[in-house]
Amino acid sequence: MTNNTPLKELTNIAGRDGLDNLHIPTITDGEDVAGRIRLQKGDGITNYRWMDKKRVNIQAYEYLCHIGEAKQWIEDCLQQEIEPITELEESMRDGYVLALLANFFTKGVVKKIFPKGRKLQFRHSDNINYFFAALKVVRLPQIFWFELTDLYEKKNIPKVIYCIHALSHLLARRNIAPNIKNLIGALEFTYEEIYATQRVLDSSAVKMPDFKGVSSSLRKELNEDVGEYQLHSPTTPDLIIEEDDEESDTDYDNRSHSDSSMNSAIIRQQQLEAHFINNPRNMQKLKICQNVARAWLARRELHERQQHVHQSTLSVSNLSRVQAQARGMSLRRDLEEKKFTFESSEDWVLKVQTGARGYLARMKYQNTLTHYRDNLDKVVKVQNFVKNKLMSDAYRKLTTDTNPSVGTVKNFIHLLDDSDLDFDREIALEDMRQKVIQCIRENTQMDSHVNGYDIQIGLFLRNAITIDEVVKSTGAFKNKQKQRRISQLAANSLNTNPYSLRGIDKGSRKRLDLYQRLAYLLQTQPRYLARLLSMTGRGDLGSGINTRLIESTVVTLFGYATNAREEYLLINLCKCCIDEEMGLVGSTQEFMRSNYAFMKLVVQTNRGAKERTFFRKLLSPLVSDIVNDELLDLQTDPVAIYHKAINDEECQTGRTSDRKHSATVQDALQDDEVRATFVKHLCDLRERTTHFLQAITATVDDVPYGVRIIARKLRLAMEETFPNEPQESIIRIIGNFIYYRYLNPAIVAPEQYEVIDATVPPLQRKNLAEVAKMLQQISSGQEFDSNDIFLAPLNEFVKKASREFANWFMELTNVEEPETYFDMHEMNDQISTHKPRVYISPYELFHLHYTIEQNMEDLELREKGPLRSIIEELGPSPYYPTMELPDSMLCLTLSHPSDHIPMDAAARLLVDSKRLVIYTIKIQSGESLKSILESPALPEHEEAWELLKATEFIDEKTNHHHSYGGHGGESIATKRRFVKLSQMDPPLDLQSLGFHQLKVVTSRLLLYLSQSGVLSADGGYQQIINMIARDITGKNQRRMQRDGELNRVRQTLVHVKSKQNYLIEQRNKYEDYLNICMQNLAMKRGERPRYGLPFTRQYFHVRRLRKAGCEPKFGSYKYSGKQLYERGILMDVNKLEPKDYDKISIILSMDQVNIISIEGTYARWGIPSLQVDMPYENLLKTQFEGAQTMDVLDGMVKVNVNLLIYLINKKFYA
Question: Domain of life, per the record (predicted)?
Answer without folding.
Answer: Eukaryota
